[in-house]
Design brief:
Blueprint lengths: L1 E7 L4 H9 L7 E7 L4 E6 L6 H10 L3 E4 L6 H28 L14 H18 L2 H11 L5 H25 L4 H8 L4 H25 L1 H8 L4 E6 L2 E6 L8 E4 L9 E6 L1 E4 L1 H4 L5 E3 L4 E2 L4 E2 L4 E5 L7 H14 L5 H27 L5 H14 L3 H6 L1 H13 L2 E3 L2 H7 L4 E5 H5 E12 L4 H12 L5 H12 L8 E5 L4 E6 L2 E6 L1 H6 L8 H9 L3 E7 L3 E11 L3 H10 L3 E5 L4 H11 L3 E3 L4 H13 L4 E5 L5 H6 L2 E5 L4 H6 L2 E3 L4 H37 L3 H4 L5 H20 L12 E11 L4 H12 L4 E7 L4 E6 L5 H10 L3 E2 L4 E7 L2
Parallel strand pairs: 15-22, 15-24, 22-23, 24-25, 25-26
Antiparallel strand pairs: 1-3, 1-4, 2-3, 5-6, 5-7, 7-13, 8-11, 8-13, 9-10, 9-12, 14-26, 16-21, 17-18, 18-19, 19-20, 20-21, 27-29, 27-30, 27-31, 28-29
Length: about 800
């Protein structure tokens, strides 16, 4: 069983390590992931051996608190508010404390009372007390962790500042007992260290405030997703409208949606229609028209009409909630690269305390003053903050997975994100991944009759057929408003073809073999049929009792961005392989257009897995991208499985990364983002290690014998605070990641007018024929304005473009304008 918990009182990566180690001796726990950034942990355990109560007890025994996870949307906001309050109070009292303790060193005007040694020290103690009170947590947690022999960052702060305060109190007592001896009093006045303690605590709090502020930014993506979910819904029960909490919506409930409402759960429209903005889920900026029997998705926005839909999910298993869960799990999961930092952090604090003691004794026994040796030891304690190590990976993971979600890319775990940056080979399924996944009519060739008459006969015959290709013809005819004729004596011949009587005349539809059996002479048209077949198209032949009357070609067309996405994969240095169960001729025809490095066709689902394994045995890191049930084995076998969002549930369950927008270009962005995130992680870890490797020897006085340089504890506190802040701020740079646009590089844009387009099929057809032209990088079609924008790598003559469009059955006018743009990649 897998359960998530809130964990309280963690302050640094050493705490993270202690919570992890708390489960070493707890039977039944197989895996624990503790996340410092979100103060949570995920535990996988055998519920027959242990339970949540035992897990919580183990955390409490380790010195922390825990509870079964409850989402706290504003947790970071609250933390930030508390830290801001503590910081303001600390600074209010630190400023006069610094004035009292150091004013005489800077020739500031000082009241006479401060010349008295007793008042000089007592006023500093009074000013220090409020700073200690608002930041008492450092001492409570720090000493508790020290006493149970599991010290953390708070232990370093508590020990160093307490030592400074105790030493200052001892010298205050010396001042009081030696009030008549001005020389001794002046000596003790210079070694009180109250201002150092106050400054250290204030600067640490300042760093924590900046850190909590930055952490809040890292959680913005998840909070935005949570905010998309409405809190209530209008449910019809016994024909009465009831406003209920979203948690009370049940599967089968009838829900009423008015204009401007956010759809609360997934469902199917049973009454009414509307345009729905699905951009938050699919990334499509144009509202989608929905009517009866159409699916609606949670968190999308109803724009115009009202409708009633039947709920097919609850709030817990709705699409938006599944997305939130995936993003949270990914941001809270742990990447393999984090293991090194965790191990080091666990032993880091005890080692630092040891180094601090050694530093003190070395300087003291080499005839330096107690005050000098004491200052060096405190500096070592203060500068050695393991937080930067602990934050290096999780903060980058959280920002990265959040940014991915913003771009319609759901990453299931940090391990998946890390694995993606090592990918060198991309294996693509064809149907539904490179292509749209369903056949459409691409070519119509009437012979001896008009195109409209051919479509009438085809539509009427195919409407009786159950063959998958028949649906393509029927859909196309409906879009064209073709008349449906009566068919008598309909017959089907085992998948080869069909026939029937229309207007007292027999008509035949089928493949070449079927028409040969019906003694229809095809000799004059064999070359046309072969050309269509070589292009990967399926040919439907139509004839009357004597001769061929027309040809309709059907094909699964290539998705808009597939060609460009594959090109970007190859430019990125990745090998791209098309892996399909389709016949080789069709696969090769698709390869000519999309230009993959290799094509492997006519493979069974189990054979797809074997191909993936073979590539892995060749030391290749493989990403498999697919959408169907037949891809699920290969998706699980690959180093990274990437599922197209509109694919089957099994494919999505099997994958590591899900592309909501069904766009292959997003797979390229997922790999780019992975590389960006882990370059950031490596940079964070390098500087976190580098900071401690340089900072600790410097604080211990390594440069003092040669150059007389020593690190004041106050500067050490500032450096320690800034190290964590810098790591978080560096990770926030990931938020600047931009998804790849189809417009990229130096490009020529041509805008032309195309007449004859009446529907989305026409749009797809125009895009397909133009994308098949050399040097065409992208095509955008505005059906309403009849405007087609073509993006070219190199100039293509207008005649070629016009002829290509004309051959597709449309008319192109002279282009309106021609511009050269430089687009950012």
């Amino acid at each position: 069983m897998k359960t998530k918990f809130n964990v309280y009182k963690m302050t640094c990566s050493a705490c993270q390590g202690h919570v992890n180690s708390a489960f070493c001796n707890l039977n039944g726990v197989s895996e624990v992931n503790v996340n410092l950034l979100s103060n949570s942990m995920t535990v996988i355990y055998d519920e027959n051996v242990t339970n949540t109560d035992e897990i919580i007890k183990s955390v409490i025994k380790a010195g922390y608190d825990a509870s079964v996870y409850k989402a706290e949307v504003n947790n970071y906001k609250l933390q930030n508010k508390i830290m801001k309050y503590r910081l303001i109070i600390s600074f209010i009292f630190l400023v006069p404390l610094m004035y009292v303790s150091m004013g005489h060193m800077t020739n500031l005007v000082m009241p006479k009372i401060f010349h008295n040694g007793i008042w000089f020290s007592l006023i500093q103690i009074i000013l220090l007390i409020p700073i200690l009170l608002v930041n008492y947590n450092y001492f409570v947690v720090g000493f508790k962790r020290t006493f149970i022999l599991k010290p953390n960052m708070d232990s370093l702060i508590a020990i160093s500042t307490s030592a400074a305060i105790i030493y200052g109190v001892i010298n205050t007592i010396r001042i009081i007992t030696n009030i008549g001896n001005n020389d001794l009093v002046n000596t003790y006045k210079m070694d009180l260290y109250f201002e150092s303690a106050g400054t250290i605590i204030t600067l640490v709090t300042f760093g924590k405030y900046l850190e909590s502020k930055s952490k809040r930014k890292t959680s913005e993506a998840i909070n935005k997703l949570i905010d998309l979910t409405p809190k209530t819904a209008i449910v019809l029960r016994n024909n009465i409208e009831m406003l209920v909490n979203i948690e009370d919506v049940k599967i089968g409930d009838l829900i009423k949606i008015k204009p401007g409402f956010i759809i609360p759960v997934d469902g199917i429209i049973i009454e009414g229609s509307s345009s729905i903005d699905e951009q938050v889920i699919t990334g499509e900026s144009i509202p989608v028209y929905k009517t009866v029997d159409d699916k609606v998705i949670s968190a999308t926005v109803n724009k115009t009409g009202s409708f009633i839909f039947k709920a097919t999910s609850t709030s817990e298993n709705s699409t938006i909630n599944q997305i939130i869960t995936l993003v949270e799990e990914a941001s809270n999961s742990k990447a393999p690269i984090a293991a090194l930092a965790d191990k080091i952090s666990l032993y880091f604090v005890p080692i630092v305390i040891g180094i601090s003691l050694i530093t003190f004794f070395i300087w003291y026994f080499t005839k330096h003053t107690f005050e000098f040796s004491f200052s060096m030891a405190i500096s070592v304690l203060v500068i050695s903050c393991p937080c930067a190590l602990g934050l290096a990976t999780p903060v980058a993971i959280m920002v990265g997975t959040g940014k991915a979600a913003e771009n319609g890319i759901l990453i299931k775990s940090a391990e998946s994100l890390q694995n993606a940056h090592n990918i060198d080979t991309i294996v693509l399924d064809k149907t539904g991944t490179i292509t749209i996944g369903k056949p459409v009519v691409t070519d119509i060739l009437p012979i001896l009759i008009t195109e409209e008459k051919l479509l009438e006969i085809a539509y009427s015959l195919e409407s009786y057929s159950e063959h998958p290709l028949a649906y393509s013809v029927v859909s196309y005819a409906k879009e064209k408003n073709i008349k449906l004729l009566n068919v008598f004596d309909f017959n089907s011949s085992g998948g080869k073809g069909i026939n029937g009587i229309i207007n007292s005349k027999k008509y035949i539809s089928g493949n070449k073999k079927y028409l040969d059996e019906e003694n229809i002479d095809l000799s004059k048209y064999n070359y046309i049929i072969d050309n269509y077949s070589n292009e990967g198209k399926t040919v439907l032949l139509f004839a009357d009792e004597k001769s061929l009357i027309g040809i309709i070609a059907v094909s699964d067309i290539i998705k808009e961005n597939s060609v460009y996405a594959i090109k970007k994969f190859k430019e990125y240095g990745l090998e791209v392989i098309m892996l399909t169960g389709d016949n080789k001729q069709t696969a090769l025809a698709i390869q000519k257009v999309v230009n993959t490095n290799q094509v492997i066709a006519e493979v069974l689902p189990t054979e797809k897995q074997e191909v993936i394994k073979r590539l892995q045995n060749e030391d290749k890191n493989v990403a498999m991208i697919g959408d169907g049930v037949n891809d699920s084995i290969a998706l699980m076998t690959a180093n990274v499985g990437i599922a197209i969002g509109a694919g089957s549930d099994i494919a999505i369950e099997s994958a590591d990364i899900i592309l909501i927008k069904n766009d292959l270009l997003d797979a390229f962005d997922a790999i780019r983002l992975s590389k960006t995130v882990f370059n950031n992680v490596k940079m964070n870890l390098f500087w976190a290690f580098f900071y401690n490797i340089v900072g600790i020897p410097l604080a211990a006085g390594a440069l003092y014998p040669l150059f007389g340089l020593k690190l004041n504890p106050m500067f050490a506190a500032f450096a320690m605070s800034m190290s964590s802040v810098c790591v978080v701020l560096n990770a926030l740079r990931i938020k600047k990641f931009q998804n790849t646009k189809i417009l990229g590089g130096n490009s020529m844009e041509k805008i032309i007018k195309v007449d004859g387009m009446t529907c989305n099929h026409c749009v797809g057809r125009v895009k397909e024929v133009l994308l098949n032209l050399p040097n065409v990088k992208g095509v955008d079609v505005d059906l309403k304005k009849k405007k087609v924008t073509i993006l070219l790598e190199k100039e293509i003559s207008d005649e070629i473009i016009y002829k290509t469009i004309k051959d597709a059955g449309y008319e192109a006018s002279e282009y309106v304008e021609k511009k050269r743009f430089i687009f950012g990649k």
